[in-house]
Design a protein that fits this description.
The chain is built from 15 helices and 15 strands. By secondary structure, the protein is an alpha+beta fold. Helix 2 runs parallel beside helix 5 and helix 4 packs across helix 5. The protein is globular. The protein has a 5-stranded antiparallel beta sheet, sandwiched between helices. A 4-stranded antiparallel beta sheet has the order 13-14-12-15. Strands 3-4 form a two-stranded antiparallel sheet. Among the domains are: about 240 residues, 3-Layer(aba) Sandwich (Beta-lactamase), CATH 3.40.710.10; about 110 residues, 2-Layer Sandwich (Alpha-Beta Plaits), CATH 3.30.70.
């Protein structure tokens, strides 16, 4: 019996099927591993975790740390949002997604920040890194120091943009920790991550994850990421009432499936998190940029079971050189001197801030309404540990001795009725005040008022601190001032580049 004769068409079909098998099998084998984490942002409690400590490619989630370091550099006076950054050939040649910068082009830092946060532009990320640290490699080392100080123990950054590079790895846990720090440590910039569009100087850019922002109630960020090696990644945050949840996904198969999974995880988070919980903001890492002190070795424990403890290099927070000109003798206290003053009365301030937080229950809770520019409306001064405490000035011995020898005649005092004394009003004929910024939470506004009061005791003495809640935030005001004293206070604060405007009667 003879077999069936195979026609050329049969052979063509077999070859076609073989080729497709060769293509599909490697793709399934090489699919990016899945990992996820859900956290209650208010207190850092983990609500769900799957492969959360597996080191994977973070892709553009990296830019959360890039932007965090940029915000830190701006706050500490290394650079300003209006600094013109010269784009290098390396930055301009980065692979997409990109803004389309040209070598030698000059562009303000604020536009690079928007491009990185909204469009996830790789050329913008590299340009910022080079502007702050001189080279992307040096910037990546600073990213790693900051990550270790945050407790991101299984993360290693090799670049500022997140394109695949050997050893450039992170975990779902570490990226969730980073997302929480972005929310709490720099609330004045957080609205960037929820902008659907933004002016990036050279053109208007659109958000990489506008679908989730539009479809999920309360979603206001944070960052997407995609490479072939990483798959579709996302760190998302959403707020409903007083609840805030962060969900992280690594290794999604597509934008749609990743978003669907993140929505499920956010729903899970809101279901598991209590309606009320104390806000416990994460401890901000020490300043590790230019001007930071000598590097010391500190011990840390890797939270992953079965791994060994290791040593990490952490720069001390002591500042060895001033980033601002020193004040002339007899001049007023400058913003750069606030930190030691805050530390010298730290117990009282810390107690008052704790009371504020307990009453308001509002640790920084970002408001998604877009601010006009990613520039803090008032200078925020970090309370780093001072290198030396400020001691009170001792009175001359002669004065003290003379005071001790003074005697007073016993003069009868007329009898007076008992009086009940309450806190004296500072308003009286004082119907003016000043505003030193609008902030996303009452806690943040109260903190700025305390720091500003310490920095400008001369013109703010007697003024009362008042936080006024508005539609888009909390106004930090000093009230109970005359028009002249309010005008003087504003002039002195504005001279030190602290935003201030007068508030009239009514």
């Amino acid at each position: 019996m003879t077999g069936r004769r195979r026609t050329p068409g049969h052979f063509g079909l077999l070859i076609f099927m073989f080729v497709w098998l060769m293509v599909l099998v490697p793709l399934s084998v090489a699919a990016a591993p899945y990992a996820a984490m859900v956290m209650d942002a208010r207190n850092g409690k983990v609500l769900h975790a799957q492969n959360a400590d597996t080191r994977l490619h973070p892709a553009s989630l990296t830019k959360m740390m890039t932007l965090y370091v940029v915000f830190e550099a701006v706050q500490n006076g290394e650079i300003t949002m209006d600094t013109l950054v010269t784009v290098s050939r390396k930055a301009a040649s980065e692979e997409p997604s990109k803004l389309g910068l040209r070598p030698g082009q000059k562009i303000k830092l604020r536009y690079l920040v928007r491009a990185a946060a909204v469009k996830s532009a790789n050329d913008a990320a590299t340009a910022m890194a080079e502007a702050i640290e001189g080279s992307e490699a040096a910037f990546a080392r600073r990213m790693n120091r900051t990550a270790q100080a945050m407790g991101m123990t299984r993360t290693t950054f090799k670049n500022a943009h997140g394109l695949t590079e050997s050893g450039h790895l992170s975990t779902a846990r570490d990226m969730t920790i980073l997302g929480r720090h972005v929310i709490y440590d720099y609330p004045q910039y957080y609205n960037l991550f929820s902008r659907k569009t933004a002016d990036a100087g050279v053109r208007q850019v659109s958000h990489t994850n506008s679908r989730l922002l539009n479809s999920y109630k309360g979603a206001d960020g944070i960052k997407t990421g995609y490479t072939r090696a990483a798959g579709f990644n996302l760190v998302a945050s959403a707020e409903r009432g007083k609840e805030r949840v962060i969900a992280t996904v690594f290794g999604g198969r597509s934008t749609a499936s990743r978003n669907a999974r993140v929505e499920e995880l956010l729903d899970l988070g809101f279901k598991k998190s209590p309606a009320w919980a104390n806000n416990r903001a994460p401890k901000a890492p020490p300043y590790l940029g230019k001007g930071a002190g000598a590097v010391v070795v500190a011990k840390t424990s890797d939270p992953v079971p079965g791994t060994r403890a290791k040593s990490i290099r952490v720069a001390s927070a002591a500042v060895t050189r001033s980033l601002r000109p020193q004040a002339r003798p007899g001049s007023v206290v400058t913003p750069g001197m606030v930190a030691p003053i805050v530390a010298s009365v730290g117990k009282d301030i810390e107690r008052e801030l704790q009371e504020i937080a307990m009453v308001s229950d509002t640790a920084p809770s970002p408001i998604p309404d877009a601010a006009p520019d990613p520039v803090p409306e008032a200078m925020v001064v970090s309370a780093v540990a001072p290198t030396a405490s400020i001691k009170p000035v001792q009175r001359p011995v002669g004065v003290a001795a003379a005071a001790a020898t003074l005697t007073f005649k016993d003069t009868p005092t007329p009898a007076r009725k008992a009086e009940v004394v309450t806190r004296l009003s500072t308003s009286g004929g004082r119907h003016w005040g000043i505003n030193v910024g609008r902030y996303p939470s009452e806690y943040a506004a109260q903190k700025i008022l305390l720091q500003t009061a310490l920095a400008e005791t001369a013109s703010l003495d007697g003024a009362s601190r008042k936080v006024v809640r508005g539609k888009t935030g909390f106004d930090a005001n000093f009230m109970g001032m005359t028009r002249d004293s309010a005008e003087l206070a504003c002039r002195r604060l504005q001279a030190r580049q602290i935003t201030c405007f007068m508030v009239g009667p009514g």
